[in-house]
Structures are given as C-alpha cells and as structure tokens.
C-alpha cells in the first residue's frame, strides 16, 4: 500500500509520518512502540487499507522524526499534547487510535486529554503492564535498557534477523524484513538502532513518572486490548489485565494464541479482522447511541 510521507512542524519540532488508505473512510491513527517506527504497521495496514484512512507518525527519536533534546518532553502528558497537535493539523475528524507497547500508553493519554476526538483505542500488548507489574525498579529498567542497547549492534543484516526472529512466532519473510529495516541505520560498518540511548532512557523515565494505571480511569471511550500469550504463564500480565478491567468500563480483552509481544507481526490478518469487527460492533455502535 502506498503511503504519502509528510513532515510537519509543531511545538518547535519537526515530525515525520505517513498518510494512506481511503480518505473517505474513518480515520485511524497508529503509534508504534519503542525502537520501531511507523512502518512497523505495514503488514497490518495491508489488511485494513480498504476500510480506513490512516495517519502514522514516527515518534520523537524514532524513524525520521528527530529526538527531543529535553527528557521531560517525553513525559506522556506533554508528548500526547504535542502529538495531538500534529494530528489536528492533518485532520479535524474524530479518530480511532491504535498503539503497540509504548504506543499504547501514548494512545491512552491522548484519549484522556482529547476525549471529544477519540472514538476508541486499540492496545496491542501495551498500556497495561509496564512498569506497574513488571517487578523492576526504575534503576533496574534503565540499566536493562543500557545493556540492551550495548548489545544491539550487528556486523551484518543476518545477525539482525536472527535476533528479531525470536520476537515473533511467524517464520521470517520479506514483510517482516521491511517492518524492521527502517528502524536501523548502517554506521561505521555496523547495523544499529536509529533510536539512541537518550531517547529510550527518557521514555523509560516517563513510564515511571506517569504510571500506566494512573490514566486508565480517565479513559471514557471503548478500548480493545489484544495481548500476547507467550510466555504462557505470566503473572504480571494476568495481574495487569485484572487491574485494567477494574479501571476501564468499556473494555474488551482478546488473547491470540501463539502470540508474542508484537501481535501485528505474528498474525496481521487475524489482528486486522478482530480490530475491524470490534470497531464495527462496539465503537460505531456506541458512537451512534
């Protein structure tokens, strides 16, 4: 599917993203997770392109959007307001939000702060576990990410694939290759993530500054949580699901078997089908009441 790239300025910062799909259809705005970029949704959008108009953003420090220089700007309340200003420049319509991992938390804050514009939120294994149920202190999480970044440097692309294959239950193919390729840069003979340490550690600090559970009770629109099922026994996930059920009134929870942290990588056709069914039967039904 062709997506029209754009670069827009807001709050003194430039934001890169894409528009695509059918402009006569309902608007869906998608936010990626940490270290990824807007193109992480490529396979999912292929399944939904006939039903929706899309806006996808590279969040600050990811893809082609430059990083913030101030770590407080990554705090969810401020980030959600800055991102919404860009969405508002592109469309005056109401919209459905989709967010994976960190992007899910961002979606919930946008839904809290701009209730009149958000019809519904789809959480792709995000917005409910970390850091509240992760059993990691802020210090431990920051150190873990520093170690991850130190080890996430590769001599060749096959090394990248061998690591990222473990993030999905789907056999590696060209679609998955395209999904991650734009998240990397080739520098000094090495492949490394475009997202740098300052950006990623600032985001981790933002998680602890505004816990995901603190925003749940303010979300008034319908929410669909599609969560991972691998590992099969995960008490943090189970506890987090019970908590979000208590806080968000209009919540649907869906588990997809044989799914790791990237449901839209593992089963894009099934995830698209479930999203479309939920939007048709829950979101638009509520909007018409």
TrEMBL record:
Q: Name one GO molecular function term.
A: hydrolase activity
* InterPro entries noted in UniProt: AB_hydrolase_1, AB_hydrolase_fold, AB_hydrolase_sf
Q: Does the keyword Hydrolase apply?
A: yes
Q: Which GO terms describe its cellular component?
A: membrane
Give TM segment ranges: none
Keyword annotations = Hydrolase
The name on file for this protein is Alpha/beta hydrolase
Q: What is the originating organism of this protein?
A: Falsibacillus albus
């Amino acid at each position: 599917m062709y997506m029209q790239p754009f670069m827009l300025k807001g709050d003194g910062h430039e934001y890169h993203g894409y528009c695509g799909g059918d402009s006569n259809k309902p608007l869906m705005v998608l936010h990626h997770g940490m270290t990824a970029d807007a193109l992480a949704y490529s396979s999912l959008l292929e399944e939904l392109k006939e039903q929706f108009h899309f806006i996808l953003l590279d969040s600050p420090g990811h893809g082609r959007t430059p990083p913030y220089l101030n770590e407080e700007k990554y705090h969810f309340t401020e980030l959600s307001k800055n991102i919404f200003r860009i969405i508002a420049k592109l469309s005056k319509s109401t919209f459905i939000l989709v967010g994976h991992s960190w992007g899910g938390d961002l979606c919930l804050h946008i839904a809290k702060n701009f209730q009149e514009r958000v019809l519904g939120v789809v959480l792709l294994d995000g917005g409910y576990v970390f850091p509240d149920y992760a059993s990691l202190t802020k210090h431990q999480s920051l150190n873990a990410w520093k170690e991850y970044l130190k080890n996430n440097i590769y001599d060749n692309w096959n090394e990248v694939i061998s690591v990222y294959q473990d993030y999905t239950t789907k056999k590696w193919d060209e679609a998955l290759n395209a999904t991650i390729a734009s998240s990397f840069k080739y520098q000094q003979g090495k492949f490394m993530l475009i997202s740098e340490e300052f950006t990623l550690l600032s985001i981790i600090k933002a998680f602890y500054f505004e816990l995901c559970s603190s925003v749940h009770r303010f979300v008034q629109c319908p929410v669909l949580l599609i969560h991972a099922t691998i590992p099969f026994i995960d008490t943090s996930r189970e506890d987090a699901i019970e908590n979000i059920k208590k806080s968000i009134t209009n919540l649907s929870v869906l588990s997809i078997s044989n799914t790791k942290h990237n449901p839209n990588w593992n089963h894009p056709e099934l995830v698209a089908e479930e999203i479309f069914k939920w939007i048709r039967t829950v979101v638009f039904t509520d909007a018409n009441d």
